[in-house]
Amino acid sequence: MRVVVIGGVAAGPKAAAKVMRLRPDADVTVIEKGKFLSYAGCGLPYYISGAVREQAELMSTAIGVVRDAEYFRSCKGIAVLNRTEAMRIDRRRGRVEVKDLSNGGTRWLEYDKLVLATGARPVVPPIPGKELRNVFVVHHVEDAEAIRTAIAETGIRKVVIVGGGLIGVEMAEALSRRGVHVAIVEMLPQVLPMLDWEMARQVEKHLIEKGVSVLTESRVLALEPGQLNDTAVGRVRMERETLPADMVILAIGVRPNIQLAETADLEIGPTGAIQVNAHMRTSDPDIYAVGDCVESTNLVTGKPCFVPMGSTANKHGRVAAMNICGENDTFPGVIGSTVCKVFDYTVARTGVGEEEARAAGFDVATCLNSVPDKAHYYPPAKPLMLKLIADRKTRRLLGAQATGPSDASKRIDVAATAITAGLTVDQVAKLDLAYAPPFSPAMDNLIVAADILRNKMDQQLRSLTPMQVKRMLEAGEDVFLLDTRSPAEYEQAHIEQSTLIPLGVLRERADEVPRDKPVIAFCKSSLRAYEAARILHGRGHANVKVMDGGIVMWPYELAD
Amino acid sequence: MRVVVIGGVAAGPKAAAKVMRLRPDADVTVIEKGKFLSYAGCGLPYYISGAVREQAELMSTAIGVVRDAEYFRSCKGIAVLNRTEAMRIDRRRGRVEVKDLSNGGTRWLEYDKLVLATGARPVVPPIPGKELRNVFVVHHVEDAEAIRTAIAETGIRKVVIVGGGLIGVEMAEALSRRGVHVAIVEMLPQVLPMLDWEMARQVEKHLIEKGVSVLTESRVLALEPGQLNDTAVGRVRMERETLPADMVILAIGVRPNIQLAETADLEIGPTGAIQVNAHMRTSDPDIYAVGDCVESTNLVTGKPCFVPMGSTANKHGRVAAMNICGENDTFPGVIGSTVCKVFDYTVARTGVGEEEARAAGFDVATCLNSVPDKAHYYPPAKPLMLKLIADRKTRRLLGAQATGPSDASKRIDVAATAITAGLTVDQVAKLDLAYAPPFSPAMDNLIVAADILRNKMDQQLRSLTPMQVKRMLEAGEDVFLLDTRSPAEYEQAHIEQSTLIPLGVLRERADEVPRDKPVIAFCKSSLRAYEAARILHGRGHANVKVMDGGIVMWPYELAD
Question: B188, B169, B159, B196: which is closest to B346 by C-alpha?
Answer without folding.
Answer: B169
